[in-house]
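Meet our chain:
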Amino acid sequence: MSVPLIPATVGFRPEFLDFRRGIRVGGLEDHERITRILKRALEERYGQPFVTEKWGRGAYWRWIAWLPLANRQAKPVSSRVSYGSAKFYIALEPEARCFECGMQVERGYIRPPAERAGWRLQPDWDWHRLLAALGPRGGLGPEIRRLLREGFRIFAGSWQAGPREFSQDDFPGVRALRILLESAPKTHWAGFQLYYPMTEEEVRSSTGPELIEAMLAAFEETVPVMNRVMHVRLELRAVAEGGAARARIRGSPAGRGVAQPGSAPALGAGGRQFESARPDQV
């Protein structure tokens, strides 16, 4: 039995990834809207419900994420909020001219401002499991290095202070990455993202279903990392015949392999605002 491919009836189109305004979600039918398409596909593939989160306003959003509900519900303190849960995400920052798809883990404020006291880092957040997995016996290093070799990138640190971005060429190592994450100022929101970049040219040369399959394949590549930091593991309901899902991203819908990434300039301080900027959306 194989993982179902995206049906041709899906109405998502490349122009919905607008490199000047963001990810279009407004004024669309359900079969065209990326939030509904990916949520349904993830739930079919992993056999469990997902929660959708977003950052943006109006018809165009800059960041959308999907997190496994079971992992959030497994948290004894933070089961009603999504801040502390690892999640798949897509993002389109017009300033960076890059579309991203991958996974992320966030760290709340250790010393929050008064108006954000409810967003304090809690002991059951996946952030703690991420730091442990980056330790000497955590075993996360080989997975991160594998993904970097395949063209994924890392964005890590304090969002306000200017997170660091790494590719295979300048990755400082797992120990240095952990030190970077641990050193984020306690009054800042921080995080870790592992994502696959796509240029505007690559997006435009693909069909809508090809882009959806590429996003799902990027998510699938990061599942081993997700499983090391979450309380509840993700398992595919079926294995794709001949590794079809994995091959989709390696073959690249735009004709480029994962091992040959395009350019993804660093955003700098203030370029990313995620969970801290919005309430939960179910």
